[in-house]
Each structure stands twice: as C-alpha cells, then as structure tokens.
Amino acid sequence: MARMFALLAFALPAAAPLGLIAAAPSSSAAPAPPATSDSTTELNVLHWWTSASERAAADHVAARMSELGLRWVDGAVAGGGGGPAIKVLNERTLRGMAPKVAQLNGQATIEWAEMGLLLELDGVAKRRQWARTMFPQVMAQLNVREHVVAAPLGIHRINNLYLNKAVFRRLNIELPTHWSGLQSAALALRAAGVTPVAFSDEPWQVATVFETLLLAEAGPALYRRMVEQRDPQAFNDPSVERAFQRLRDWRNLAAGPGERPWTQLVADFAAGRAAMLIMGDWARGELGTLGLEGGRDFACQAVPGTSGVHQFSIDTLAMLAGNYSAQAEQEKMAELLGSATLQLGYNRIKGSVPVRRDVPVDELDYCAQQSYQLFANPATARVPSLVHRMAFDEVGKNAFIETVHRFALDPKQTPAAAQRKLQGLLRALGPKSMKSVQATP
Ligand code: GAL
C-alpha cells in the first residue's frame, strides 16, 4: 500500500541533504551531530523529547543503535505534547525534506499511513513475533488496513496524581485519595504557604488534566462513547459539566495563571514548591532524573475516580517510506525498538512501560509496575487518551484542546456553556470515519 501511494502520488526525495535537515525550522534542544561519510547508516529522527529524561531516553536508543552500526541524527523539536513537532514534520514533508523516522502516535500514524507515506513493517513484525510478544492494544495502534506501520516504544499512563510525600509529611497532612480529602489537604497546604497544585495554562497541559477529570466524572464506559466512538449524545451527560467545574477548581489551587513548560511544573513539585500534580507519567521519568523515586519520595496514585482505569497513550516511531533507500536501516531500527532489552532500558528512563508482555516486571520501579500490571490485566478498563492522539485525528484533537483551553482562561464562561461548546464541536466534527475507528481490544 505505502509503496504504491508513495511512488505514484507523494514520492519524497531519497534522503534530505544533511545541510537542509540542520536548517529545518526546529527549536531543537540538541544540535544534530555532524555528518559522516557513510550516509546509508544514518537515520534522521524527528521527535519532541527534549526534557532531561526524554533526552536521556532518546540517547539510550541512539546508543543501542550505534552498536548496530546505525546513527541517530537528531531532529528534536521542543514542545511538550508534540504540537510544534508535528507542524515541523508537515512542513518538512511538504518541502521534500522528510526525516526517515518520526514520532507519530496513534491517530496521527493512521493519517500518515492512509496517505501512503509510511513504510510497512510487516516483515519485522513477523520476524520478531510482535503479535505474540506485544500487548494487543499496542498492536491495534500499529495496524492500519492489516499492515503494521510503526514501531512501538512505550505505554504512558495519563490519569496520574502525584503527591510530594516530604511536603505532606512535614506538614502532617494525610495523603488524600478522594476529592474531599484533596480539597481539605489543599486548604492546609495553602495555610502553610505551599502552593497546593502545579498547573500550567499551556493548552495541551490544560486539556490533559481535563481528559483525566472527564474520565473520573463520566467513568470508562461513557468516556469511551465520547472519545472512542465520538458520540455527540454522550456529551450531553452532566458529567461533562462536572468535569469542567473540577478543572476550574483544580486550576484555582495553583500559584496563578501562566503558561509554563511541563518540566517547570515537575521542578516545582520536586522542590516542594507545589505539592500535587496531575500529569502523564513522563513526569515520573523527569522526577527520576531529578533523583526522586516513586513510592519513596512521591506517591503515584490514580486521579480520584479513575483508580483501576488505565488511560493510555502509546509512543511510536514511524518510518517514512520516501524512495525506500533506507528501508534496511529503518527495519533494523524498528527491530531494535521492539526488543525486550531496549524496551526495558528505554522505558525505565522515560517513565512509560514496555509494550511487551514478556518483560520481567520486577525490573521496573514501583509506579511503573503498577501501570504495567494494570495495563496487562485483561479485566482492566483501558481507555485512550484523546489529547495524546489515541482517539481523535490532529484537527479534532486540536479543536478539543482549544475548547477546553478557552474555558480555562475565561472565568466568565460557565461549565454548562463549555459543555455546549464541546457538544457543538463534536457535532461539527461528525461521527468518526470507519477507517480510523480503533476498537480497544
Ligand atoms: C506526549 C508523549 C510523551 C511525552 C509528552 C510530553 O505526547 O507521548 O512521550 O513526551 O508528550 O512531551
């Protein structure tokens, strides 16, 4: 499929000259390494992992690649959640400067595969027995029209509430597990001069918090109808209004308005300047690089109302087909990404958990074990993250983020009005097209 479309309709140049790659509009945190003479072993990788832990996780992959004679040429584009990276990827592809490898998760991967731009990795998947070794939910995200179109890296959990244990201990406040406990803890924290909640007005971060609250209020079955089936009727439910109200309450517990990168929130939380944080578990990876350990230094709990539910996003790297000049190297990289050793090494740094069913779970840290075991349990409700591309296409996801963000920044907008806006948006987006419907196994 990819071969036909790519050759007929959208052929990309063999390999973008390295000079051009370096000049690509990228706010890269790490400069691309200099070119070597052997360009066949180089793979330019576009991604958005620029925080300390993300960088270390990417460097881990790069180091393992170099053992196989492959060179990771870095094309990082800063910006949590990947909005800026996807824009740069679009631009580069339109200008014939597509990278060989790109972080393209979930629905974004489907869109790119449908355009025929991605290399099919069926051979790799078969050779390495991905269908047998990987979680079915992971395989579902990689499959487009019966073809494997990306290599999986890790499973993130989104619905986490982190509590700084040292702060709670010092102030003699019990670790809360329910909303009422959180509210009284917040009052006590404020009285002691500690900001209760680390929060940022950056649009994707606001919407990430909101989707966890929506899950908490709606429960997994209704959340699925909203996010997976995109059923506008489901958005009539009163839980949507409640979720908006919770978002407002949660934001009011923060230091003050302002857009800040998620890494700053993590730094505030780690230093005890803020005591609570709702964030995907890439935050746990970052806390690890700051020397904090889950269970010991901070509690990793589910957002109240979501315990036992795993709201996931899966990081994947897609191989851009181009004219197939790098196919062998791309396949070699894909094989490496799926291997058990790489999975353990990478995910222990990144904060996510392995995509494979056969990794020794005791080699993961306490919080990762919880996430992994929950995800692995067939009885668990596993629900996709909308904000992190597991359910809506890029346009729908961005519109959702914007709607939630506008509500957060406008104190005059009532939760009921925000709910109506969301309903309107869903009606405008229309039902989910069949090609992109991914039933969660
Ligand atoms: C997510 C991505 C994670 C993490 C996070 C913050 O979309 O899946 O790997 O990087 O953004 O940038």
Question: What does this 3D model show about the protein?
Answer:
- The protein has 441 residues and is α/β, with parallel strands linked by helices.
- Helices cover 47% and strands 13% of the residues.
- It contains 19 helices and twelve strands.
- Helix 3 links the parallel strand 1 and strand 2.
- The longest helix has 25 residues.
- It is globular.
- The N terminus and C terminus are likely disordered.
- The structure holds beta-D-galactopyranose.
What distinguishing features does this structure have?
441 residues; alpha/beta; D-Maltodextrin-Binding Protein, domain 2; six-stranded mixed β-sheet; four-stranded mixed β-sheet; 47% helix; disordered N terminus; binds beta-D-galactopyranose
Give the SSE layout.
Blueprint: H1 2-8, H2 18-23, E1 42-47, H3 52-67, E2 71-76, H4 83-94, E3 101-103, H5 106-114, H6 122-127, H7 130-133, H8 136-142, E4 143-144, E5 147-148, E6 151-157, E7 160-164, H9 165-170, H10 179-191, E8 195-197, H11 203-227, H12 238-252, H13 262-270, E9 274-278, H14 282-289, E10 298-302, E11 309-319, H15 327-338, H16 340-350, H17 366-376, E12 381-384, H18 394-409, H19 415-429
The structure holds beta-D-galactopyranose.
Beta-D-galactopyranose is lined by residues 48-49, 54, 80-82, 105, 156, 280, 282, 313, 315, 388.
